Amino acid sequence: MRGRSEDREKDATRQALLSESGGTVVVADDTPAIGHYLARLLTRDGHRVVVAHNGAEALDAIAREQPDVALLDVMMPELSGFDVCQAVKSDPSTRLIPVVLVTALQNVEDRIRGIEAGADDFLSKPPNPHELLARVRSLFRLKRYTDELDSAQSVIMSLALTIEARDAYTDGHCQRLATSAVAVGEALGLPPADLEALRRGGVLHDIGKVGVPDGVLLKPGRLTATEFDVMKRHTMIGDRLCAPLRSLKRVRPIIRHHHERLDGSGYPDGLAGDDIPLLAQVMSVVDIFDALTTDRPYRTALTLDDACHELETEVDRGWRRADLVEVFIGLRRAPRDGLSSDAAPKAAR
């Protein structure tokens, strides 16, 4: 009796550990016997399983469940596994979900088609149960790592907006910069990766102000030289905060260098000319404009014409690139969808 009791306790412990470590798996196969077999196999391994019987059901289940892994039969009615995989990988809300195509097809062309659709792995049909479980566990761990990184980035983004909320005069500043910077990037023909970096950079450019005391950050007047030295540290603090996240690698130069000037008189590194990253230069232009057209305790917001004149003056001083200022002013004077009047502070309209 004692032996059986111990065995039951061990089984219960094992199942608890599996459940704690397991994830949600969507299994899609139009042959019910195969779908149920895979479901039983994965359930015994501690996973929660949702079974779909065709491609359309699979797509709905993936969108609804947000699973850790999806196992898709290739040859299904309505939508094939290729079609479902491509749709999953094209949707920002599901594209990080690992997809395994389960297929009896063995030719190279079908494998290439699966890779082009975004498949993360393949299993031959009928799958070896040990191989299937090993691959699901591996992809499950990968998904958890990805989720952790995504959560860390979300925390950083939320922190940036919290910092903005400390100062009533900068309400909406981050979103305006993100919108304006992306519009300039699109006008310059920059690639999607750079546009995404500009969007994130608009939100995160001042995140280092978390390390600036309120007495300096919220001072209702101009800063002394000593206070300004404290303020300037926010670029380096922000860079260090984002350094652990590889997903923000392209954003960090924006955070660190958006206060540099072409003649080398900016901060924190005194970079000059082309040594200043292009995306940081774009951000500096839209940042200056937004500051000029926002009410501050020590001055009222400038009009559109006056703010544009100030930017042109900075070009004459050798601080800003003429082409970037020209593109930005063109967008402000002839706003398009990306730079409508909603992207500007009320005082600048």
Overview of the structural elements:
56% of the residues lie in helices and 7% in strands. It has 349 residues and is an alpha/beta fold. The chain has 2 domains: 2-146, Response regulator (Rossmann fold), CATH 3.40.50; 166-348, Hypothetical protein af1432, CATH 1.10.3210.10. Strands 2-1-3-4-5 form a 5-stranded parallel β-sheet, with helices on both faces. α2 links the parallel β1 (24-28) and β2 (48-52). The protein is elongated, with a radius of gyration of 27 Å.
What would a concise description of this structure say?
This protein is an alpha/beta fold and 349 residues long.
Overall CATH architecture of the largest domain: Orthogonal Bundle
State Rg: 27 Å
Mean pLDDT: 84
CATH class of the largest domain: Mainly Alpha
Tally the helices: 15
Class from helix and strand fractions: alpha/beta
Portion in beta strands: 5-15%
- Major sheet: order of its strands? 2-1-3-4-5
Order of helices and strands: HEHEHEHEHEHHHHHHHHHH
Q: How many structural domains in the coordinates?
A: 2
Q: Would you tell me which CATH topology of the largest domain applies?
A: Hypothetical protein af1432
For the termini, the CA-CA separation is 82 Å
Number of strands: 5
Helix share, percent: 55-70%
Look at the structure and name the CATH superfamily of the largest domain.
Hypothetical protein af1432
For the biggest sheet, the summary is: 5 strands, parallel
Poorly predicted regions: 10-20, 341-349
